[in-house]
Structures are given as C-alpha cells and as structure tokens.
Amino acid sequence: MPLDAKVLDAFRERKKKVLVGGGEKKAEERHEKGLLTARERLMRLFQPDTFQEIGAYVKHQCTSFGMQSKDFPGDGIVVGTGYVEGKQVSAFSQDFTVLGGSLGKMHARRMTMGMDYALKNGTPLVGIADSGGARIQEGVDALSGYGEVFYRNVVLSGVVPQIAIIAGPCAGGASYSPALMDFIIMTRQNAQLFITGPNVIKAVTGRQVTMEEVGGADMHASVSGNVHFVAETDREAIDIAKRILSFVPANNSEDPPHRPTPAVTMAEDPGMDKLAQSDPSAPMDMHGIVRRLVDNGDFLEVHAGFAKNIIVGFGRVEGIVVGFLANNSMEKAGCLDIDSSDKGARFIRFCNAFNIPITTLVDVPGFLPGIEQERGGIIRHGAKMLFAYSSSTVPKITILCRKSYGGAYLAMCSQDLGADVIYAWPTAEVAVMGADGAVNILYNRELKEADDAAAKRAELVSEYRAEFASPYLAAARGYVTDIIEPSRTRSVLSMSLRKLMNKREMRPPKKHGNIPL
Fold this sequence. Notes:
Elements: H1 5-20, H2 24-32, H3 38-45, E1 52-53, E2 77-84, E3 87-94, H4 105-121, E4 125-129, H5 140-156, E5 162-166, E6 169-171, H6 176-179, E7 183-187, E8 192-194, H7 198-205, H8 211-215, H9 217-224, E9 229-231, H10 234-245, H11 270-275, H12 286-293, E10 300-302, E11 310-317, E12 320-327, H13 338-353, E13 358-364, H14 371-376, H15 378-391, E14 396-405, H16 406-411, E15 421-424, E16 429-431, H17 435-442, H18 444-449, H19 453-467, H20 471-476, E17 482-483, H21 489-500
Parallel strand pairs: 3-4, 4-5, 5-7, 6-8, 7-9, 12-13, 13-14, 14-15, 14-16, 15-17
Antiparallel strand pairs: 1-2, 2-3, 10-11, 11-12
Helix pairs in contact: 4-5, 13-15, 17-19
C-alpha cells in the first residue's frame, strides 16, 4: 500500500511548528534587536546541510497550572549535531521565543541527549544560553533537570572541550552550567549572567546596583573573570567559538589539529632583538613577542580583559598548536597575584587535558606584595600554578626572557616543575630576588659605612647582577638547557616542539590530585 499523502501532510505540519519555534512575529522582533533565533544560531555554527536535530518532538510532561493543554515547540530548545570546519560538534541552543527558553524536565532531557552524544562520540560541546531560568510551573522537576545538566558538565570535563555562549539572560542556577564549561563567550548587548539580580540585591542588602554592575559582559570579562571572550553580536560570538574549535582536539584521546610544515624554518628574526629589554625597570612588549613567535601573528588570547599581568592563549608555531603563558610587565610589573594565578592555572590544566603543548615566557619579578593579597589567600592561589604545571604531562617549554625571581620563578614552570627544556635570553636574570633587594640585605652594613652610599650601592648591584642573577650561573648548575639570542627564539621553539611531539610521561595511579582551591 503506497504512503498516504495525508500522513506526510500531517508530518510536515508538525515539522513546520517545530521549525518556527515561538512564531515568525517573535523571530522578527529578535531580528529588529540584532539577535538571531535559536535555530539560526546553530545554522551559523554548523556547515550547511550538516545539522541533524535530536529530540525535535519532545514535549513537556507538566500538568500543573493549566500546562497540560499547552504545547511548546521543541520545549524551548534546539539540540543536534553537525560539522564545524570538518569537525563534528554537538550543540544546543535555548529558544527564548518559546516560554522564555525556561528549563523544564524535558527541556533538560533534550539538552542531556546532546551532552550524552558528545560523551559517547567524543565530540566538542557548544551550548548557547538564552533562558529565563527554571520553569516555575515544573518546580522541583526543573531543579532536577538542572542537576542532570550539571552532572554531565562535570562528566564531560576533561573529556571533550565545552564552550558556552551567553547570548541572552542566564540567571540563578542556570549560570552554573556555563561556569562548569571550559570557555564562556558573552555578547555585550542583551546578555546577562548572574546569580541574584539588582532587585534581589536591593531587597536583601539595601544596595542599589545596575544590571551591568551585576551581570554585564564587561564586568565578567574584567572583574569577576567568569567570561573569557566578549562579542558584540551573536554572529561574532559564534565565530569566536569556531576559532576556539580550530585550536582544540575533538576529545582528550586525540592530538590537537596540528598542521605541521614540511620542514622547520631555522631563519633568525632580528625583530625579536628589538623587543628584548635589558633594563629590569623598563616594560617589555610581551604581546609583541608572542605575535612574533606564532604563525602569521595569529594569536587567540583568552581572558584578555582579566588579570592582564599574565597573558594566555593559543597559537601555532610552524603549524603546531601551542598554549602560551607569558608574564606582562606592562601590568603590575608582571607580578603573579591571586587573579593571574587562577587564570594561568586553569589554562594550563585545559591544555594538559587536551594534549596541547605549553610554552611559557618568563618575565616575573615575584608574587605581588600587599596585605590584600595575603589576606585574600595568595599562598593558596599561587600554589595552583605550582600544582597545574607539576601535574601537566604535555610538552613544556620555558623561555626566560628577563626577570625570573624567587618562588615566581618556580611557578612559571622551572625545570624543577617539569619543564622539558628551558631556554634563556642573555638578558635573563635568575635569582632568589632582584639585585636591588639582594644588595640591601647582603650589604646593609657596608652601605651604611660607605662614604658614597649611592655609588657603592650601584657598584654592588652591578656585581650581584653579573655574578648571581645572570643566566650563566643557572646554566652552569644545569637549570637552563641553553642560552640563545632572542632572534633565534622562534626557530629554537619550533624545533623543540617537533622533537617533543612524542613525549610520554606516566604518573602514579590515583583518582585525582587535590588542587588547592
């Protein structure tokens, strides 16, 4: 018996309702605000004709508050898989045009279907948040749905990369799913990320605050550190997600998407010599140094607006994907502090989880002094850097550019913390502390008794720097692999990366270490 045309017509009508979500009028209202619909966002992410939806006909099961007679297309979310530049990706996009994108039990079920697919098939996960929060009509069932999502975020952590895009409201418990993911991208307009909003804060504390102060993108990117990237539009946010995906593997059992050149170019770069600084008090352009190391100056900086005294991000060197960490002496003299330690440690752990080699560029005078830092737990936070580097088994290359003092020298991946190779520029200073501070302690009496204390002090500082703070003493003790000219840095780094690609390092079996949090 041939297929009944009425069956096809009924199917097509149902499909049409699913595809239009909250309706054409609501879609037009979003377009007027410069926003894409939930489905359009996924179409922007995926290559044409590769999207396959999961659970399109799922319906809520709520019978309270008259919900039993209401139908919500897709239950307020679009979930599926597709390809991004040839890499399979699982994704979900909450649909604010359908019941405000609120999360109920079946909405969460669809979300977890996509997450389970990512786990079983080893695909990255991209989640686009645009939701009014928990569906009040479903009560504890909605909370259970959030719990199922959070649990899977944790199971997926370190197995596949997880990228969150905050493209609308993301409030209360909903904010914890993005917080459990690897990277958060947030649009500057129309998006909010917070636990308690201005009205609740005023009711409880009496303090008047704005939404921007509590949950705006700029605040989260520069103050709280919750957001890694800020985008102006939905399209830009999705493009940033694509760029991240271009540097990371599909899962933890694969290598990053290296594109090695046929041969390593050993040419010198005289421009690097111009960026090197001998004067320890002069700021050094570490961004410029990183851009000269990566192919075509293409560097994806992560957390660019937060803890600017350390730079982290991805690039390629002769086609090899590399995670970079670098002290930035243009901010807080490049000191490590609470925020930069958190920022650096988390980036190190991401790179290690996904087999990305780490290159560390050192110009650090120490940990930032101050009562606020001590009371805020700089010991505990700084220890995260020690823990992260020590527990990492990926190739680790350290380049001592200039200052490398005290405990911060260790925290920036010294040989003792597992660096595979360490190169030093002739400008490097490796010591317990800077020459000025050391002379004050070591020669306090001599300086007091000197006829010309300033001249004597300058002489002692010069002697100490030449004998005890130079890279040659560290090299003589075997702590430095080689001393190189700055102009040779890119070629030496590239060759070292190629030679370390087959590195394998085993650690004692255990469930996991206990990082100081």
